[in-house]
Amino acid sequence: MLFFLLYLDxxxxxxxxxxxxxxxxxxxxxxxxxxxxxxxxxxxxxxxxTGFPFxxxxxxxxxxxxxxxxxxxxxxxxxxxxxxxxxxxxxxxKFVPASGAASRMFKDxxxxxxxxxxxxxxxxxxxxxxxxKHFAFFEALNEACLKNEGRTVETLLAEGQYKAVVANMLQExxxxxxxxxxxxxxxxxxxxxxxxPVEEHLVEAARYAASQGKAEVHFTxxxxxxxxxxxLVDKVLPAYAEKYATSYHVTFSEQKPSTDTVAATMDNEAFxxxxxxxxxPGGHGALIENLNDLDADIVFIKNxxxxxxxRLKEPTVASKQVLAGILVTLQEQAFRYLELLDSGVYGHxxxxxxxxxxxxxxxxxxxxxKTMEDADLVxxxxxxxxRPMRVCGVVKNVGEPGGGPFLAYNADGTISxxxxxxxxxxxxxxxxxxxxxEGTHFNPVDLVCAVKDYKGRKFDLPKFVDRNTGFISYKSxxxxxxxxxxxxxxxxxxxxxxxxxxxxxxxxxxxxxxxxNDLLREQHQ
Length: 525
Prior knowledge:
With 525 residues, this protein is of the alpha/beta class. It is 37% helix and 18% strand.
């Protein structure tokens, strides 16, 4: 056997290496517990070895090329379409990924706590302490300082005890903000008290996502914080239900263990700690499973930290209604075409009309379509029409990190609209980098999704994931370097085979909180 191996090429060696992974009884028990097969581990390790291909791009999407900007008159029509849809009794759900910890939000303040100096030195630190009374959590922080230090925040700062104030904000003895998720932090100040992002999303749900007086809201949370989310919702829900005359149904889910991915050594072997396989969360792309479990017709998706106080909500409410109206209008037309194809009573003129809809309204282009016979066209059009649909709000590019809207090639040779992250773009291709750096718009994670087919059946969403759009990152565990595998992102590869439409929305609808000092911006005051 050794002699045989000497004459194998590198690819063959890789294949044999993949096939002969040795799993211990303990490994198999862990895999069974997580719901992960041995074959999945082999595929994941193979992904580490081969990497993921870059996407082939046609162009960056723009107002002249794939991004809609409805007029005021059209916007009114779409809002009315959404209002009519909500009266049909269909289920509308607001889906909010909320499991992320706020630790990165306080990165600068953790660094200050560990710094060799005791007074603020950087611009960030000075801004934080100079404006500390303007944070919505200031009153709670003051109480924590009185309880633990016997002095107010103001007194502690006057005494130069800056790190004591930060400790009461970050540590468990105080507000514990260093360990809590963003959704549970006090973001905005109101006369009746501070409001968290969870509460702002409840208010938003009542404003644009309630159907016949009922609002379905779903948060994805971590297991360690699920009880805290539940307690907060139980506490505040009656008041919001009364204020907005809305009956709420709030549910929670956790990222499934079966979506965890195995970590790898720098040599692409399975990474072990204490002899056990090390698994890591698969990233937000894992949430396609949570989304798939919802029994909803229309789903709004928005990040937990992109919220504003009530006084600034009107642009957000209006734009969400427009996005939803565009979605249900396009879906209604797609359903009519699918029913027409089912009937068998159509002519070539009808097929040409459907082609124009697919290419011009859904932005799915195919250069080969001119050479297809009618029978093949019907099969192709049915496949492109009968799949999940999403309308994505995009904002003008203001230099925020993250994904952007593009026209990209798919595995079947078609071109469609996609949201891409920088990791999916070949940095060595100057044309692609020009598209990326000069792109006019940015993806703020502002989606409205239709997830049932024209017969009212739920789509099996994992079937529409492009498995070749994962991402490899570099981490460490106990001082040892490792590779981590992230699944295709929720709004990137996980929705790759959906019908996608981009719509420009006002920049004031995008107000993320990436650092604690972002809460000092006018939009959050």
